[in-house]
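Protocol step 4 of 5: obtain the predicted structure for the target chain.
Materials: sequence only (see below). No template structures provided, no constraints applied. The aim of this step is simply to have a reference model before the mutagenesis design in step 5. Sequence pasted as it appears in the construct record:
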Amino acid sequence: MKIIIYLAASANGMISNKRNVPDWLSPEYGEGFMAMSQRTQAVIMGKTTYNILSPEYLPLKDEGSLVVLTHDTNATPSQSNVLFTADGPEKIVAQLTAKGHTEAVIIGGTQTVTEFVKAGLVNEIILVVEPVLFGSGLPFVSDVEFEYQLALVDVRKLNGNTVQLHYEVGDKRD
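Step 4 output (structure tokens):
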């Protein structure tokens, strides 16, 4: 299964501000986010991202699979295609594959991205760089002790100030 990370970042690499409010994102990011979610029909996110989006802004309504990583697996989902799970990345990939998905997109946040990167399951990264700097916030990944080589596939200017970088993830170096 192909796993794609699709995230926006500040110019200094933060994927969220300390207020945890996505008011800095461009409309072009939102359009790409929705298009990617509709294409894959399988979306993976952490509980904080889910709480920000649910219920009005979830990228899939009653179709597809929305997997939410959380320790609160008894929470009540806002719609029928949401699965709250504490399972690890390998098991989540196996579950999505069993449902017939061939690719999935991770839309946040740091802990979820870090778990999939550490597991070596990420194939592509699409990073939308927004024209903003945060003094503090959430990094793309945290607590990693290795490197991945990335190969640039495409660069697109989305508007006058926002760019999209598309990478393939190469080999891991410890």
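Step 4 remarks: Helices lie at 27-40, 47-53, 89-98, 110-118. The longest strand covers residues 147-157.
Proceed to step 5.
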